[in-house]
Amino acid sequence: MQTCKNCNRQFSWSKIYKSFWKGYEPIECENCHTEHRILVRGRVVFVSLTILPMLVFGFFLSPFDHAFATIGVGFAILLFGSFFTPYLVKYKKIDQ
Ligand SMILES: [Zn+2]
């Protein structure tokens, strides 16, 4: 899990997770208040674990004829993938 580049305190899973859904909002360290921004490759990791598997399932792998079933499972895949992303993405300190 990502730690603060300034004081090494670990960011919480929920803090990182919420930042994704707010359009990769910068994360502020609770300890020293240093701001961190997601790296571009962190966004790539997020997309390849969430949106990409959902689209691959939706367009190529879905066994359902029903659009709603496909969307439902696709969305579950997106959520499932997103649970792992806080462990994998990297942040860097914002220089002020
Ligand atoms: Zn800190």
What's the helix and strand layout?
Layout: H1 13-21, E1 27-28, E2 35-38, H2 40-49, H3 51-61, H4 67-88, E3 91-93
Antiparallel strand pairs: 1-2, 2-3
Helix pairs in contact: 1-4, 2-4, 3-4
The structure holds zinc ion.
Zinc ion (ZN) is lined by residues 4, 6-7, 9, 29, 31-32, 34.
Distance between the termini: 24 Å
Q: Strand order within the widest sheet?
A: 1-2-3
User: What is the count of structural domains?
Assistant: 1
Amount of helix: 40-55%
Radius of gyration: 16 Å
SS content category: mainly alpha
Q: Estimate the strand proportion.
A: 5-15%
- Overall mean pLDDT score? 93
Number of DSSP E strands? 3
Oligomer: single chain
Overall geometry comes to: elongated
In DSSP terms (H or I, runs of 4 or more residues), the helix count works out at 4
- Ligand types: zinc ion
Q: Can you tell me the residue ranges where pLDDT is under 50 for at least 5 consecutive residues?
A: none
Q: Report on the biggest sheet.
A: 3 strands, antiparallel
Order of helices and strands: HEEHHHE
